[in-house]
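REQUEST FORM: STRUCTURE PREDICTION
Request ID: SP-0412
Submitted by: Lab K.M.
Chain count: 1
Length (residues): 301
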Amino acid sequence: MKKTLKMYIHKIWGASHDFWGELWNRIYDLFGRNDHLVHHLGSALSYSSCFVVFNAVFLLCDVTRKPTWLLKYKVQEGKNEPVDQKKLWSCIRTSAFNLLVVSPVVTLVLYPMALALGSYHKGQLPTFERLLVEFVVFTLVEEVMFYYSHRLLHSPRFYAKYHKKHHEWTAPIGITSIYCTPLEMVCCNILPSIMGPMIMQSHIFVTWLWYALVIFSTTLAHGGYHVPFLFSPEAHDYHHKTFNCWFGTVGILDKLHKTDKPFCGSIHEVRHYVSFSLTPVKELHPDPKDRLATASCTKVE
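STATUS: Completed
RESULT:
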């Protein structure tokens, strides 16, 4: 069984590997096989386009309240319905600066280090097994770096000056993921994401795929909607609501340091999973007070 499964995985990956390899060669040719251009302009276009595309649907719903079917999946009901226009434009300006100025500058500065560590643009894409290993390492590196830098910014010494801006949104929306000071953008968002690929000497195309996953994940975490079949935003949404728990990305270090309380044991933890039901998780797992109210109404009837 194991051997058969591995055979099918290799068969599927072999076909997709050819597709991704051909796609990469076309992209590389598009940039004239210029490594500097690929690394700087290509990376900037990659993460900027991902950020815009992933946030477009959520932002449309936040502003217009359409599509209406998405509204029933809102985590914090009654918040940002519709979103405050003044706050939104302030958020857009700050996020645009971080995306189009801060991020490219950091990429430029770290380019020599990336080359020295062995990051590359030419050659074959990695095997399926290598890709899995790289993504596991990326995830662990991001968890460690994000957790400790994020928790440090919550300390009294740094919070007001460097992190309070991000927490102006107690009910976050997608683009608030990079609504922050430049220092936080570098320390909490860029470095935890970029160090994994640098350590693993990853192909630039693999790095772009990782960026896409990170941006997709953080957009969902801040999006404010618990949409079926997608990553749950419950933990990070709860962090914005309460400020004092869940500082990591996947929860490993929060468990270790016991900073998952008071999230742990709450109704929000119960809802924190990838839902495969079209019924909103808040209806599948209603608040205890809502259950009591329903029971009372039933008893009266």
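NOTES: The first helix runs from residue 2 to 30.
Reviewed by: T.R.
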